[in-house]
Amino acid sequence: MNRTIRTLVGLAASAAMALSVVALAPSSASAATSPKGPYTVLESPGLTVHAGPGSATAALKTVSKGLTVSVDCWVIGWTTVNGDAVWGHVASGTGYGWVADYWLDLQGRTLQQTTLPQCTIKGSYYPGGYFDELSAKGTGSSRSLTVKGWAADYDTLNTSVHVVAYIFRGSTFVKTSEGIASGSRPDVHKAYPYCSNNTGFSYSISLPNAAATYTVKMYAMDTGSGLLYPLLDSPKTITVK
């Protein structure tokens, strides 16, 4: 891979953004059969998945070098990596979050030069809510966690938002799990009248066959942009026997 080309492409992308220049024409060449990927991770020992398109945002998990991620859109990020300003939004099949495309095997190109759409950053308010409860049940291969709470996006108060759980066993990432905050929560509406009655979430997450202490980090997903914002009283930790 020619990193000089990647750097020049990234600098050109930043300049284009500053001058409000329309995106580059799509390229037919790609490091994957689909513009969504999967793309191989080049960073050693692994690529950090962030809550937003910038290295200063919260680190969600790490994808080891040699593994792959798929992406569903790109954006000019808040920070650059070796001159490359393009960040990709990780597709739901491989979790959620944002990655610097400098560390993806794109054969000298950026995600901006594929046929992927540009991510839509919507609204001036961010989602919020509360991680109320974490519980566990079952034994052996039937172990599971249940997460409960509420979430709302203040730009789209009449639309149910997605919530995403990141599960860790000790410091090791285990999996992600997604739910929708659409359950009845009249208590939330009473406390915050601008929120609808249907902002609650409660769902179960299957666990590996291993007794351990698990930590769950809960996030609300911003409608439109896909940015993840931590819920209040997150993370929570529980020991599963």
3D architecture notes:
The chain has 241 residues and is mainly beta. It has 2 helices and 16 strands. The strands form 5 sheets. Strands 10, 11, 14, 15 and 16 form a 5-stranded antiparallel sheet that branches. Strand 10 and strand 11 form a beta hairpin. The protein is globular. It starts with a helix and ends with a strand. The relative contact order is 0.16.
Short description:
The chain is mainly beta. It has helices spanning 3-18, 186-191; strands at residues 39-40, 46-50, 59-64, 68-69, 71-81, 84-90, 98-100, 128-137, 144-152, 161-169, 172-181, 183-184, 198-206, 212-221, 228-230, 236-240. The protein has 2 helices and 16 strands.
Question: Topology of this structure?
Answer:
Blueprint: H1 3-18, E1 39-40, E2 46-50, E3 59-64, E4 68-69, E5 71-81, E6 84-90, E7 98-100, E8 128-137, E9 144-152, E10 161-169, E11 172-181, E12 183-184, H2 186-191, E13 198-206, E14 212-221, E15 228-230, E16 236-240
Antiparallel strand pairs: 1-4, 2-3, 5-6, 6-7, 8-9, 9-13, 10-11, 10-14, 12-13, 14-15, 14-16
Structural class: mainly beta
The poorly predicted ranges are: 1-30
Terminal-residue CA separation = 47 Å
Largest sheet: 5 strands, antiparallel
Mean pLDDT: 81
State the helicity in percent bands.
under 10%
Number of strands: 16
Q: Name the helix and strand elements from N-terminus to C-terminus, one letter apiece.
A: HEEEEEEEEEEEEHEEEE
* Integer-rounded radius of gyration: 19 Å
Shape: globular
Number of H- or I-type helical stretches: 2
Name the beta content range: 35-45%
